[in-house]
Design a protein that fits this description.
Length: 253
Amino acid sequence: MQFDKHLYRRFSRRQLMQYASLSGMGLFLGSCSSDSSRVSPIFNPLNQQSGNVRALFEPLNQSIEELIFQSKTPSREYPISAIEPNALLVNSFDTTPVINPNTFKLIVDGAVERPMQLSMKDIQSLPLISMVIQHVCVEGWAAIVQWRGVRLYDIAKLVQPKAGARYVYFESADNYYESWDIASALHPQSLLAYQKNGQDLPVENGAPLRLASPIKLGYKQSKWVIRVSFTNELVQQRRGYWVDEGYEWFAGL
Ligand SMILES: Nc1nc2c(c(=O)[nH]1)N[C@H]1C(S)=C(S)[C@@H](COP(=O)(O)O)O[C@H]1N2
Ligand SMILES: [Mo]
């Protein structure tokens, strides 16, 4: 996905907000390489019957839009030819959990108007975003990877975080946990990915769903995400698996 810098320059912030709520696809999506053929017809802007459509098209509340607007600087993306298929090293602190994608439901809850449980089918009916980015692990390696999945922003539009929500907490099936500031989580390049380098996400890389974003270090990119909770406060010593061992919480790139 590429940001449309012209769009950014040409429109005022208010116009962008209107654009976002009209298109239902969030800021800057106009030029992103989301594959609209994969998008379920219920998300067609012309079809207003479904309750889900209304939910998706609802803009986020003003205070959250203001918070996330500050962080919309795009991170570098690469061409497909730059992908390094063997460079992404599996890095798991424990055993690899195996999740049945057919029965799996992602819990999305916390400080939201409409808590939800989303099946992979529900998730795959949201706009599909592709990006080729660099994954950086603090252990001294990096890899150019293509991730495809859905924006956390689009999931937020479904559940409608409350005005006080400042953080997003991610629980994983291997008992890993992470927390992000809401601005980073709702950044347009922060995805819940279900494909890697053009194929279904391998189990060892976090299937069925993992975080992928070019704006945070590798340890923030939770694999096997089973629960996404919006929250007003973080619990000390429960901020992140590696963070609680002394690694930096924000871990921005
Ligand atoms: N659930 C879970 N997510 C995780 C980890 C983990 O151990 N468990 N390791 C993190 C670290 S340190 C890195 S660098 C990346 C590695 O992703 P990969 O194994 O797909 O290369 O996953 C991150 N997400
Ligand atoms: Mo890492």
